[in-house]
Amino acid sequence: MRLAKRRYEGVMHPRAGQRARPEDLVDLNALIDAYYDRRPDPSDPTQRVSFGTSGHRGSSLDGAFNEDHIAAITQAIIEFRAAQGVTGPILVGRDTHGLSEPAWRTTIEVLAANGVEALIDSRGGFTPTPAVSHAILRLNRSSAGGQADGILITPSHNPPRDGGLKYNPPSGGPAGSEATGAIAARANELLESGLKGVRRMPFARAERQVGAYDFLSHYVDDLPSILDLEAVRRGGVKIGADPLGGASVGYWGEIADRHRLDLTVVNPAVDPRWAFMPLDTDGKIRMDCSSPAAMANLIETMRAPAPYDIGTGNDADADRHGVVTADGGLMNPNHYLAVAIDYLFDHRRAWGREAAVGKTLVSSSMIDRVAAALGRRLFETPVGFKYFVPGLFDGSVGFGGEESAGASFLRIDGTVWTTDKDGLLLALLAAEIMGATGKSPSERYGDLTGRHGSPAYARVDAPASREQKARLAALSPQDVTAGELAGEPILQVLTEAPGNGERIGGLKVVTRNAWFAARPSGTEDVYKIYAESFLGEAHLGQVQDQARNVVAQALKT
User: Fold this and answer.
1) Is it the case that residue 407 has pLDDT exceeding 60?
2) Residues 280 and 293: beta-carbon distance below 8 Å
């Protein structure tokens, strides 16, 4: 198996980082027409309902995200929540993708026809994922009635042609595999039956039955319970916030006004084609706030003499964060997670000593070293923010973060804030860090490398058939026969996450100064190799090369 040359290896589209051209933009009329007109074929696996780590996603143009899908998924959620005894309101949020409003309307029509109380944004605006999670938890703390849950209509940072839908149960965070598996199975049954069993009413009638919830005020006004905003004001930190045309667009100005922050909304534009976006590294429009190419506009704004101390970006549903500093440019998500953990566990004195540091197993081992220096337990999970939900909910995990720039943490008093990723929160934390310490997050990461070493990290893809991917997902530690990796003895071979014992769906191989993890892709005929070395780029290359061989040998056993 030869390693595929993909964007993760640095092979970039010639126009990456350049503003999109007219020919790059999606035809919104065709996109929405396909949503209503195209009927998915349930016999085609690509057109069936499938929940990944972040819900069901696809494009109406491919028959993967159409009216029938949303009607079936919503009915399946209604039946699932009823079986779980969830009888409270369901909060429905949406982002700025072109397919989000049509899907939102379909969702409301099915909820109303089934007699389910739906709460939508009282301002008629867009709703960030963290605001929905915050609302679910708030309502469930204060309500003596039935528990609330939520539906979020967003494909996150995916291109403009895509749509997405996620379900968050009363715990407030992403639904677990048992829930999403049951919902997807029932939705596909409904698709196969031609939607027999789906109850629905016209939107004009359904709209009169929905209730309203002020997501923005409840979220924004509660921020002092989790952030030291006085430190931001006292430090005179200047913030430039770029919503990247997403659901946070109405939130940043309110945050500035209500909390008297020196914060400017760099780009308030909303365009479901995202015509103002630079192309990502593969030449697609993608609202990936962790990508230097996609964040090129803000990075250019932050060049010397920078008008802001901290620049921030969010993806379309604001569950991910990007942090740009005047002295360091766009921070690598792994670097910022390590800085955030180091700062928070040192400055949140009310957090219990038992509160753990949560990370996914493909996140940087710099986090491991920071956690050890802090004397904190490391809670290492498979990929998926859903694994942090129980710990954030009960306070046993102080911080949960993913290498893909998603994280959340506890309130100042050690209680739950959100159990879903919160890009607004992590962006504001960067300003708190600078205000409280006088150093940018980039400078603080430099301090960490001085104490713990400087890792090199990368992800590459390797081709694999469907059968090979299935074997990779089912490997056991005994299938790895190699004794060393890139000149170092292998210390651990993991197929289950150390933090919770859940299967990785692949494997992770660890030495003293390096590691790699291999996981099959859920959508492509490849497997993903994440790797890191504290011995430099050349050693990282050796790790990547030998990882391919280790996996190939394991698949032969």
Assistant:
1) yes
2) yes
Looking at residue 557, its pLDDT comes to 64
> What number does CATH give the domain 456-556?
3.30.310.50
Q: What is the pTM for the complete model shown? A: 0.95
Report the CATH fold assignment for 222-452. Answer: Alpha-D-Glucose-1,6-Bisphosphate; Chain A, domain 3 (3.40.120)
Angle at 86 between CA 80 and CA 89, to 5 degrees: 110
- Cβ neighbors of 414 (< 8 A, separation 6 or more) are 348, 350, 351, 352, 355, 395, 398
Q: Do 456-556 and 28-217 fall under one CATH topology? A: no
156 has catalytic annotation: yes
Where are the domains positioned within the chain? 28-217, 222-452, 456-556
**Looking at 50, 60, 100, 156, which residue is catalytic?**
156
DSSP lists the bridge partners of residue 464 as: none
Helices (H), 222-332: 229-234, 249-259, 296-301
Cβ–Cβ contacts within 10 Å for residue 342, how many? Answer: 26
Model confidence over 461-479: pLDDT tens digits? Answer: 889 888 999 999 999 999 9
pLDDT at res. 6: 35
Is pLDDT of 8 > 70? Answer: no
- CATH number for region 28-217: 3.40.120.10
Tell me, what's the pLDDT at 191?
Answer: 98
